[in-house]
Amino acid sequence: MALPGVHRDRGELRIRESLEEICTDLADYIADLSEASVKERGVFAIALSGGSLIALMGKLCEAPYNKTVDWAKWYIFWTDERVVAKNHADSNYKLAKDGLLSKVPIVPSHVHSINDSLSAEEAADEYEFVIRQLVKSRMVSVSDISDCPKFDLILLGMDSDGHVASLFPNHSALDEKDRWVTFITDSPKPPPERITFTLPVINSASNVAVVVTGESKAEAVHLAIDDAEPECPSLSSRMVQPTKGKLVWFLDEPAASKLGSVQFCE
Ligand SMILES: O=C(O)[C@H](O)[C@@H](O)[C@H](O)[C@H](O)COP(=O)(O)O
Looking at ligand 1, which atom is closest to the CA of residue 217? Predict the structure, then answer.
């Protein structure tokens, strides 16, 4: 049985027994945020990650969501992207296009992926410029605290090393405070070159959801959510602390199996 749980200052935990339950809960959560954002702002600015997240979003391609979500109002971004051709197997754009964007009536001009003909540094600079233009036109809101873009929803996965987006443990990119989009050329997880949202952008979002499944992530989930342990590496998953936005963790039971005491509330 699914029980919503609130875990001190690390956001709301939604621990589900099965992937099926996570997929349904995630689709409802995204559809509800889309409806609220379109009602309030006329648009829904959402940033996707790579990995298993896209498959876990799959119910959005099915009834009722495929017919009830106002897809034409969606503006799509990526929290991180590998600097490879957009038709390359490693591309997060390709992953999302094949698994979601090609199956729902998204407006092609609303899809903002990186320019794959540029270097990592140039692609990061240009991606940030595009976002700055959309903030200027108010397609993407702006945080009244950080002057960063305030995405309506940022969706993150988390790897077993505890990284979200392409913000890897102990990497200098974790310390970037001024740029909205930065780049790395030494990713410990291939491919080496990537662009990524920085933590100030992630933490300026109205809503952040971290979607994590599988036993292999249990230790990283514990380190990301429970009270800090001595000698814990600098993990971006632990640094996801939205300034004013809401943080929700979607976890299956195996991924949540090493969590400390969780206060459940009705
Ligand atoms: O480009 C990437 O690699 C992703 O954006 C990355 O941050 C991903 O979300 C995690 O590695 C989790 O991936 P899995 O869900 O597939 O484990």
Answer: 17
Provide the token pair at 247: 């943080």
Whole-prediction pTM = 0.96
- pLDDT (tens digit per residue) in 143-168: 999 999 999 999 999 999 999 999 99
The residue nearest atom 14 of ligand 1, judged by CA position, is 51
48 lines ligand 1 (CB under 6 A): no
Under the banding of pLDDT at 50, 70 and 90, the label for residue 197 is very high
- Tokens standing for residue 11: 């956001």
Which DSSP symbol is given to 112? -
Cite the DSSP H helix spans in 105-209.
120-136, 199-202
Contact status, residue 235 vs residue 220, Cβ threshold 8 Å: yes
Q: Closest by alpha carbon to 112, among 129, 99, 98, 87? A: 129
ipTM (interface pTM)? 0.96
* pLDDT tens by residue, 80-98: 999 999 999 999 999 999 9
**Sequence letter at residue 68:** T
Tell me how far the alpha carbon of residue 155 lies from the centroid of ligand 1, in angstroms. Answer: 11
User: Cα separation of 181 and 223, whole Å?
Assistant: 25
